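agent> fetching stored inputs for the pyridoxal-5'-phosphate docking request
agent> found them:
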Amino acid sequence: MSEKKYDFDSGIDRRNTCSLKWDFCEHVLGVPDVIPMWVADMDFPAPPEVVEAIKKRAEHGAYGYPFIPRSFWTSIINWMKMRHNWEIKREWLSRAPGVVPALNICVQTYTAPGDKIIVQSPVYYPFFSAVENNGRRVVKNPLVYKNNRWQMDFDDLKRKIDHRTRMLILCSPHNPVGRVWERQELEALAEICLKHDLLIVSDEIHAEHVYKGHKHIPIASLSPEVAARTITLTAPSKAFNIAGLTTSVVIIPNTKLLNLYKIQLENLGLTVNNIFGLVALEAAYTHGAAWLDQLVEYLEGNMEFARRYFEERIPEIKFLKPEGTYLALLDCRALSLPQKELNEFFLKKARVYFDEGPIFGEELVGFERMNLACPRQTLEEALRRIEKALSELRV
Ligand SMILES: Cc1ncc(COP(=O)(O)O)c(C=O)c1O
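agent> prediction call returned; pasting tokens
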């Protein structure tokens, strides 16, 4: 582990900086003084190495059409090898202005209207809209909560595949349930997809935030057969807090699938990258490892802090500690509040703002998703607010 040199305790004031997370509650919901713990970005500045690279580029002054240098691609290849032990090739790589745009492009490129696409709910809600908005049909293969852990239901999956099923969209690690899928689970899933000729679109944007005892395995790294039918979507955006720079990575080892992807990218006119995104990605993947190691340790500390706080002082709410991602589910069903009242309680009484569970699927009625990527002090203040509001609710 690298020596400690980065400060995650101070955070950064993000109010009135065009931050969706921070400015939405006051300017759209009309509720001031809320601690926002919803949309998945972090209340830490990006690594200083990334900020420096962006500053240097900004100082240059000319921001015309960018050329993607070889070093950009090399930084991605090196990162995948170093962090995920996955050897990828330059010829497999493409890009997108975001993982969500890439998801939509995959649906458009590899399936036809009316085709069925499997998603493992509850899941990041743009998975549903990428399918439905493009006129395809969502087939849910719900995760089941067994032995204190969300698990895939392979029998249900096999039953649901038919001649119109073309694709499975995997979330790995999984938002919002926080699972880091194990090799056996990925192998079992891949075997079913191979057998039924399904393409796998694997959203691995949360790959870099994985806690002790767990290891992210890119599903395409399982075997050449799996790689040949997998489109991996990733980005440095979650890991390094640079989502606003809209630069994502698409990895497609199968040449035919890659060419189809590139044609659709061109058809949509998405051929120009954000120049600061290019610079930030390369700086993050080249110089960001030590910062990231320290960040993950800090986030794990936040998870443990919250787990203990809920257990000791807010036992009515069950904190489901994730294996990866900086997002955690709160099981609030014991409060017996209808979802709307539950949301109102958190926003208006406790003055913390979460993503409400059901946006990820009906499986999460009575749940909220909490984003813990903030300084410990902010987290503590949020927990105190919840504790206080609950004590008033009980009276
Ligand atoms: C699973 C998952 N995929 C994609 C995204 C967003 O990706 P992008 O901002 O690159 O479109 C998020 C953001 O929360 C996410 O959780």
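agent> quick read of the result: Residues 40, 98-100, 124, 171, 175, 203, 205, 235, 237, 243, 248 surround pyridoxal-5'-phosphate (CB under 6 Å).
agent> awaiting further instructions
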